[in-house]
Design a protein that fits this description.
This protein has about 110 residues and is of the alpha+beta class. It is built from 3 helices and 5 strands. The chain has one domain: Nuclear Transport Factor 2, Chain: A (Roll).
């Protein structure tokens, strides 16, 4: 699988409520660059499982891959809150995610 295919598979599984594929996709020493979110695969997955995104509806808009980077743009709707546009940037090494950044803003229509 390409890095883009790996991200698409992980995204679809996560959007369906299944975190387990992310356990093999994320490197155990995964680095999270979003302030307040923990680094490390297990700590990050525990955090995400309890975060509002775990109950959100995720509407994939586009995926762009460039060498070791895959960028995912989607709209996220958490029950009871306005929708947000999200861009995740994932960096890979040997087909495993080693770093993550994101940008989140209110969805503009």
């Amino acid at each position: 699988m390409t890095n883009k295919e790996l991200v698409l598979h992980g995204f679809r599984e996560f959007a369906a409520g299944n975190l387990e594929p992310l356990r093999t996709l994320l490197h155990e020493d995964f680095v999270e660059h979003v302030p307040g979110n923990p680094s490390g695969r297990d700590a990050f997955l525990d955090f995400i499982a309890a975060a509002p995104v775990a109950t959100a509806t995720l509407d994939l808009k586009r995926v762009v891959a460039d060498d070791d980077y895959v960028v995912v743009h989607y709209h996220m709707t958490v029950p009871g809150t306005p929708a947000r546009a999200v861009v995740d940037i994932w960096r890979f090494e040997n087909h495993r995610i080693v770093e993550h950044w994101d940008v989140v803003q209110p969805e503009v229509r």
